[in-house]
Amino acid sequence: MDVDGLVAGIRAGNRTAVSRAITxxxxxxxxxxxxxxxxxxxxxxxxxxxxxRVGISGVPGVGKSTFIEALGTxxxxxxxxxxxxxxxxxxxxxxxxxxGDKTRMVALSADPHAYIRPSPSAGTLGGVARATxxxxxxxxxxxxDVVLVETVGVGQSEVTVAGMVDTFLFLTLARTGDQLQGIKxxxxxxxxxxxxxxxxxxxxxxxxSAARELAGALRLVYSGGDxxxxxxxxxxxxxxxxxxxxxxxxxxxxxxxxxxxLVAKRASQQLEFTWALVRDELAERLRLSPGVSAIRDxxxxxxxxxxLTAPAAxxxxxxxxxxxxxxx
Length: 328
Known about the structure:
This protein is α/β, with parallel strands linked by helices and 328 residues long. It folds into two domains: 48-256, 3-Layer(aba) Sandwich (Rossmann fold), CATH 3.40.50.300; 289-327, no CATH class. 54% of the residues lie in helices and 12% in strands.
């Protein structure tokens, strides 16, 4: 692996080099992990806080891909270079992934100022690929000044992606039952901007009504403080109406953070990411441990037969790992 050549290609904005680099940081091969660390070390000093990182999520069917295409097109027309990381859920059985997001962004895929990378979540917590943070660094190293990260849906993925972006944008819909379901405590804590999508045609009135209800509830939650109150807007990714307003609110949130706040937020995210990498590496070492491999089948059979409880089985596997590690 010619890491120096790859770094030069990324800095030159070569799309092939960018693709190869993201494939490298997504790989779990030990030699690829070593090469990716070298690659990211070379790129890490160049990204700074100049690029705008935005996480985008919402309920299934909310129109995330359509909205992202509309937003991406709007941004490239304004002179930005946009990178999109669209994380698809992987099958828990086969590990396969459809990776269909790119096919739903036809216009943006053909835009020379945009780069779309569909990536399998590989079963990671929250559906966000382990390598998403590294992929963002690659895109920023290649000169993309806006990076959009699309998550797979509602749940733990929101918490995960909020820990790697500057602004978290939550898309919702009208006519989804009780509108307050869209602002459960977990979403309130991480959403920076909320947009009611598909506000077009005969759905526009309902969308505006839903936005007013959400905005009223948010004002009650955030009353009495000077914290950022997530604005609630309406938009239509299908026809592009309101997309520019949503982007302006993203910039407003970034301005609210300020340079100092943004640096502090990124530093905190790097610390959490450090521990995430430690947990990932420990899980890999546990999986490859000879001591664990020697008793894995035995423990599995005992658990399935009901002869061993899960806590006892976990203790036995960890003891086998610790014993082998001490000997090493």
